[in-house]
Amino acid sequence: MNIRRAMLALILAAAFPAAAYSAGGPDPDPGPQAAESPYDLGRARTKEGNWVLAASLFRKAVKKDEKSFKALNMLGYSLRQMGRLPEAIQAYDRALAINPNFGQALEYRGIAHLKAGNREAALRDHQSLVRLGSPLAADLKEAIDRAAAN
Description:
By secondary structure, the protein is mostly helical. Helix content is about 75%, strand content about 0%.
């Protein structure tokens, strides 16, 4: 009887090798990991302050998905950090054309307008944030007030 069970176990183990893994054996190799998206890679580059590479990656993300308002927003952010204000504002405009209620793009565009010396445009973005009830309105207002004091 024991020999029969042992033979049956050997036959089953040979026929169903996956069963060995489910019984607590080592995990099979999961294979290559999916590559991070250009957007995710760009976010990582912004955290490092590598604005040129970040902008390049966000451009690639936008090329892949022209409706990616988040990638357009981060492209604007990277360009703003490089002092390329007209291009940054254009990227924010494109993001807001896709999602007019995207508070982060409104705040960032307002800051870009301030840096470009256009306080009125920054105030308009602030008012849009107020209408949305966004907490980012307070941050932009603080930046506007700081700029006025200097």
